[in-house]
């Protein structure tokens, strides 16, 4: 039963994608929306069915053998266990709510059919990613979501900047994917199988803990995870990816696709436990990313970019959790993050549409009275984001991460996490104040058109808001037995102390934000205007200059290379032969000048030479 | 006998097309299409009815064989034989031939009869190359492919910028392939004479020459002669000069044939002749060949990014893809070699798709210069979406055949040559760059000019759907293909790896 | 046989041949070229005659008849060509007539 439901929930989005893609433009916007949203809704129902039918044991279904040559036997097979069920729930459940919201958000846009075709293909690919029972099929989903992300970031194709953003997203993640592919090659050659269960089974037998090969394999897989999950240094694509429609940002670039890296590492936990150094590196990268993104979020003016950096920062938390071996905590935060970040993005989308596609913070402001639903969404989502104690979902998951970090004795990571909490408070308050309070910055902000549709606008926001409170945290089933024991499960000393500490960090952040943005507003402005403050602002606004680094370190040299080779110099080299022939031709053609006299001269010369040589050889012979 | 008919059907069909022009413009087209479909159908029937399990020790490795003496004095026979690989490639030739006829339905309006004569003669030559087992016969067909292709480019091609005329491109194509073909002829003759002096029997037969006992030093040069002939056609980088010009100037049908099938004859040649005839030398040569493959992957990709002509871009991507094939052929593992065959098939589909699409674009906007495109997504229905599919296939998106091929190659090569795989994998990023760059320049961005253009008609749509369906089918379930070629690939791999073992043993003994 | 020694006759023939050859190589006018050719043919004929006299063989004289016939034919064709040339180009300078690129 469960496998049937699972396959069904994969096939529904795929079927609707095919229907939409091949309908051309015969389907009207209404029918497209219905098919697009409806199929994901049905997929969500199928997932719910699978959840109900779940017996506690993992189940596999092999549809067919993909390739079979020698040992190379990857299958098209799905495995359902607790982890995939949680991910399925997020993908189809949150996905459905976002689709529903998209029906409101995208109304009146051109190319709705294309939008839903891509969105549903994305849902399908993401489901394959989390259900795949072997790495090659996982890679199919992995690349598939990348392609969909490409198609959706560049959805507004008339503006070339959007397409370049999509291009960048695809290429940067593709760089990560190559590492993942190399990791697969290594695993296949060493272990002889790509089946995830077998790999996890065999790995400890083939590799000693901390052996070089295990480390390399884990590093390569980590490379793939970094690209997809937008962690340092492969993170630069995520802020630019906000060029896509807001529901896309909510679904792909907040709730699901960017957390695929977290899923991947959690799924291959056994492999990473064999490489403790790499696992620590995961945590360090997470900590660096969360701080770096937290600072960068402080200096953004585009509300979606603030949210993008905050996503990156929250994924950093998940990586920290993975890094200390607390896989369960990472997935827990993944789940709550999916709820509250989707809520924040959808609320932002509501604001953006209400204000006629205005998303610069400076041009918004004072909207709380006119846009109460979006305001409520932002408040609840923001509370979860800063992990407001006890009432928010974010608190429980983030607390779990910090607690595990402390239990694992990683003081550095813990401090980064606490500092990150302060930063989160700062940028969240700045964001909410910037949008909803103060003076409206433009005509559109003064006269917004709030969303009114109960079903497609209010409902998704309300459901997500409920899920972002402590209720959402309760919903999380826990994956206990799937993962090896986390460090914090044995001990309980100091947990209360930590909770107090974390709460202190949150309150400190909020208080600091209130003081800075409410009381010392003028002073802040003057600092940022000029001198060192302005430079600091620019640095943060450009997120520490990684883009420039890549531009001058990779993109420009590449362009120079392309430009330099454009003439195809190797081909020129081969043309040298033709040149020689031509020069020879030009030389010899001079002898054919039509003057009988020269012919006669040459002939005499030739006869003389022959005679002389004859005489000489005769002479030599006798 | 059916093997002979596979060659003769397109030949006579071509003559018929030529004469049929007097009955009207449409007659040659229908005749050509029918002929191609007949070849395709015949090979499909053979495929369905064939038994491709590995043959027993005493059984013939060939599915079908046909031989009659031709010039007995020199031991030349008309010896045709078919195994799984030939069958796949003949079927591919039939399919792409039919597509070539279809895609030039509206494009070619002058000398229609003669055009189809050439198209069918190419097919005849290609099928002959895939079936010939007598080396002399093979050489004959190898050269016979060139002439009609020359006319195709020279008579119906497009002249690009001044100095880049179609005649020039055709001549260049001809000289490159002819010169390399002569090199192969020298190698063939030398091989035959060495065999003659050893055994006293003058023969051009493949089976006999497989056991020819060639002195080591000479064998290396002979192997090189074969390799260079095939390398020019594949093309491998220093010898690629003819390809971009020929593609850019050729009519759509010519490009489809060229990229879809003619390039595959080279890979087929390496697989059938260069490696089995000289396994030890090939084994020794493998590092060089793989390096050339790597150079091809990168060089083709870099140059593809710098092109302004859309067909030149696709031509350079072919060079990049063929680099993977070259690596795989010399990797010495069954997985990689099977992967090479899948890439050959996949590349035939995806490059044919892209060339046909660029031909369709040309029919609509009368240019192939990407600087004059942009924003076409909003102006043409359906076509850009189809382009995106083939672009995705070309960059190796999973679920397309290209992915299966490339990854089988990389998986198979990793064991023997991990460093090659690591470098080649970077080519996957480059593939994404050039493919998406093309999408970007042609279909996205601001509209270069105004006005809505017609979407694909039923003929164009059907061709595309067929190619998409095949790409996905091979991408999701390549097993029938792999099973067909397995019995051909396994002995070659065994020869290749055995020779490595022998060489190692020899060293130990010394 | 007494009289002129064979060497003298051959030297005369060689001198005549050289003169003709020099004329052929140096003159531009077609008339002189034809005359030079004629001289060379006759020089060759003379050598035949001298040879046949020296060895008392008739072959050389038969050869001379052939040479005369050839010379007559050559002269008639050459002169006809020259007249055509003059009518077309109003010049009998051979260099003016050459159309080759060279």
TrEMBL record, chain A:
Q: Name one GO cellular component term.
A: endomembrane system
Q: Which GO terms describe its molecular function?
A: NADH dehydrogenase (ubiquinone) activity; NADH dehydrogenase activity
Q: Where is the NADH-Ubiquinone oxidoreductase (complex I) chain 5 N-terminal domain?
A: 66-116
Domain (NADH:quinone oxidoreductase/Mrp antiporter transmembrane): residue spans on this chain: 132-424
Topological relation to the membrane, as annotated: Multi-pass membrane protein
InterPro entries in the record, alphabetically? NADHpl_OxRdtase_5_subgr, ND/Mrp_TM, NU5C-like, Proton_antipo_N
Q: Which keywords describe this protein according to UniProt?
A: Membrane, Signal, Transmembrane, Transmembrane helix
Keyword field contains Phosphoprotein? no
Q: Where is the signal peptide?
A: 1-21
Q: Which residues cross the membrane?
A: 31-54, 86-108, 115-132, 138-157, 178-200, 206-227, 248-266, 278-299, 306-332, 338-355, 367-391, 411-433, 454-476, 496-518, 598-616
Specify whether Transmembrane is a keyword of the entry: yes
- Compartments where found: Endomembrane system; Membrane
- GO biological processes: ATP synthesis coupled electron transport; electron transport coupled proton transport
Primary location: membrane
Q: What is this protein called?
A: NADH-quinone oxidoreductase subunit L
Q: What is the lineage of its organism?
A: Bacteria, Pseudomonadati, Pseudomonadota, Gammaproteobacteria, Oceanospirillales
Encoding gene (name): nuoL
TrEMBL record, chain B:
UniProtKB keywords: Membrane, Transmembrane, Transmembrane helix
Which family does the record claim for this protein?
Answer: Belongs to the complex I subunit 4 family.
Q: Where does it localize?
A: Endomembrane system; Membrane
Domain NADH:quinone oxidoreductase/Mrp antiporter transmembrane, first and last residues per copy: 132-426
Q: Which organism is it from?
A: Halovibrio variabilis
Membrane topology per the entry is: Multi-pass membrane protein
Give the CC-aspect GO terms: endomembrane system; membrane
Which Pfam family is one of this chain's hits? Answer: Proton_antipo_M
Q: Where are the transmembrane segments?
A: 27-48, 80-102, 114-142, 173-198, 218-237, 258-278, 284-306, 313-333, 339-362, 383-405, 417-437, 458-478
Q: Which InterPro entries match?
A: NADH_Q_OxRdtase_chainM/4, NADH_UbQ_OxRdtase, ND/Mrp_TM
Q: What is its main location?
A: membrane
Q: Which GO terms describe its biological process?
A: ATP synthesis coupled electron transport; electron transport coupled proton transport
Taxonomic path = Bacteria, Pseudomonadati, Pseudomonadota, Gammaproteobacteria, Oceanospirillales
What's the protein here called?
NADH-quinone oxidoreductase subunit M
Q: Which GO terms describe its molecular function?
A: NADH dehydrogenase (ubiquinone) activity; NADH dehydrogenase activity; ubiquinone binding
